[in-house]
Amino acid sequence: MTTTEPTPTTDAGPESVSGAEIVFDQVTKSYSAQGKPAVDSLSLTIPAGQIVMFVGPSGCGKTTSLKMINRLIDPTSGTITIGGKDVRSQDPDDLRRQVGYVIQGGSLFPHMTVAQNIALVPGLLRWDKKRITDRVEELLDLVGLDPVRYRDRFPRELSGGQQQRVGVARGLAADPPVILMDEPFGAVDPITRQRLQDELMSIQSELKKTIVCVTHDIDEAIKLGDRILILQEHAQIAQYDTPEAILSAPANEFVEDFVGSGSALKSLSLTRVEEVELTEWTTATVGEPVGPVLERARAARQKSVVVLDQRRRPVDWVNIRALTGETVPAPVDEARDLHQIDHRATLNDALDTMLVSAYAGVIVTGRRDQYVGVATFEAVTALITARNEAARQAQEDADEQ
Amino acid sequence: MLEFVLDRAPDLAYRSFQHVSLVVQCVLLATVIAVAVALLVTTVPRLKPVANFVSSVGLTVPSLALLGLMLPVVGIGTLPSVAVVTFYAALPILRNAVVGLEGVSGNLLESARGMGMNPLLTFLRVQLPLAWPVILAGLRVSTQMSMGVAAIAAYALGPGLGGWIFTGLAQIGGQNAVNYALTATIAIVVLALLLDLLLRVLGRFTISRGISA
Ligand SMILES: Nc1ncnc2c1ncn2[C@@H]1O[C@H](COP(=O)(O)OP(=O)(O)O)[C@@H](O)[C@H]1O
Ligand SMILES: [Mg+2]
To answer: For the segment A103-145, what is each residue's pLDDT rounded down to a tens digit?
Structure first.
């Protein structure tokens, strides 16, 4: 493997990147003197501000590789640098306070409240009280939990998905340039997992951290990764490339097997909902007079309206017959799941979500969970058909030559 | 009997105070020792069988015998009493502290390390608070037991209510024998219950709502 020159970490992208580049240089880790090392001479550059997914079969050395970045494990030989600085030149505790770490299930401390959990690292870094309080609010907002409602709850009072959100918030707390995640969404149900993945992508689009994420789920890797590192036993690199490249040109048989067949279906994981032609649904804001809303819905020939809160986040999706009062009411059941998806979710997610939705469509949200539109089943299938048609055409053209 | 008690009220109060004071101090000392040993044992797994052996066999040694064995070494008075009470007090706390500390999941410890907490911080902010409910339960057992052990320690002329019990036993058949022994025994039981109540209240305030039952 070749290692590329470390690029400066500040100007790597068009938007502001707060992440730092990570470089592995011939990193080896042996747990015992005999036998092959768990990680054998791994060399790798993780560009600043990107999400890199580590995937591979169980026991291939993903976790070991990850933990060497924040020195939870020290390599037997080789060097790892973050932003050009050798991690071994720093005090391990200082280093770890500057690298976010998120593991499965969130691993929240059960005796601390949500706020206390998030405030831990800033506290260790001796931020002042006011700054910590503000930061906790900001982060809870960022991960989609109302600070007033959730700040003082204990982990056992949260659902699995909510705990994992707090885990992510805790990892981001001190605004570290690098965040390490080890199977972060492994312990939640598929729909929640998809939601958490969407949120992570939306957070990342704002923050531009360097995120290294271990997973055993190739679909998750394809969805989240700017780049995917596919590892074989002893952390040998099978392929390290973009999801598109890995799907269209697997480097070898191992990758082909690992990625699995049916790449037409896999491409559902590559296409984002934002590429679907969204339908403009009639919307109403909580508290708005009902009259004009009904008029708008009738004009659009729609039998239901999407209800938004003051910050344009969808809170309800109601049939117009249910709008009998003077003004548009707030949803009766606050916790009701609308099954909305982020615009960066994949077509795969969209189809999954439609299966559990009451309407033949799914609400799509954008930045900070704000309403963007509705993806209808027709629109999604139309896009898939078009894509497959294009792919077939390209194949035919290639065959002719 | 009421008359007996009233006549000796100041002495009874003084002895009660001494008794409780001895127990509280010994239990505190025992807690520090037991938690420290438990921490050592849970971090160095090879030591665990030793701790288990001491805490189970230790409780089967009759306290009077232990006291007798210690007299030649430390003499009579307060010191042997403190040593014996502390020894017994430490055993239930040790056992519970080991269980409590072992119950802290490895995931949480790794999270703590991954967030940049050193071992001392991890102990103070993660391990101790999480193990605390179990340790406190041990502390309550230990306190009850120590009230009794402290009475026996009076055999070595230690302070407290035990003195009256031995006075009573020495004068069996005598006029006030039963009064001495009974009053002291009842006082010990009542004080033990009060201490237990206090520990329960302590639990209310010191066990995080996130982990209390
Ligand atoms: N603490 C350890 N001691 C000894 N061997 C270990 C230890 N941790 C991991 N290993 C071994 O190293 C290899 C890689 O493990 P790991 O990095 O956890 O793999 P992955 O995360 O890809 O499943 C495995 O064969 C595992 O058995
Ligand atoms: Mg692993």
So the answer is: 987 799 999 999 999 999 999 999 999 999 999 999 999 888 9
CATH code for the part of the protein at B2-206? 1.10.3720.10
State the pTM of this model. 0.81
All residues at 6 or more sequence positions from A115 whose CB lies less than 8 Å from its CB, including other chains: A133, A136, A151, A152
Within chain B, which residues score under 50 in pLDDT? Answer: none
Query: What domains does chain A contain, in order, with CATH numbers?
Result: 22-264 (3.40.50.300), 274-381 (3.10.580.10)
What residues contact residue B162 under an 8 Å CB cut-off, 6+ apart? Answer: B19, B150, B151, B152, B153, B154, B155, B184
Q: How far is the CA of A309 from the centre of ligand 1 (A)?
A: 48
Which residues of B fall within a CB distance of 8 Å from A180? 114
Per-chain mean pLDDT for chain A: 87
DSSP structure string for chain B: -HHHHHHTHHHHHHHHHHHHHHHHHHHHHHHHHHHHHHHHHHHSGGGHHHHHHHHHHHTTS-HHHHHHHHHHHH-SSHHHHHHHHHHHHHHHHHHHHHHHHHTS-HHHHHHHHHTT--HHHHIIIIIHHHHHHHHHHHHHHHHHHHHHHHHHHGGGT-SSTHHHHHHHHHTTTSSSHHHHHHHHHHHHHHHHHHHHHHHHHHHHHHS-TTT--
Contact B111 A101 (CB under 8 A): yes
b/e burial code for range A222-232 (CB count within 10 A of at least 16 → b): bbbbebbbbbb
The predicted pLDDT at position A47 comes to 96
**Domain definitions of chain B by residue range:** 2-206
CB nearest A112 (choices: B107, B116, B210) = B210
Is B115 an 8 Å CB contact of chain A? yes
What ipTM does the predicted assembly reach?
0.87
Q: Is the pLDDT of residue A274 over 50?
A: yes
Tell me which residues have their CB closer than 6 angstroms to ligand 1: A 31, 38, 56, 58-64
Percent of chain A with pLDDT over 70: 93
User: Taking the alpha carbons of A384, A386, A387, A392 in that order, is the dihedral positive or negative?
Assistant: positive
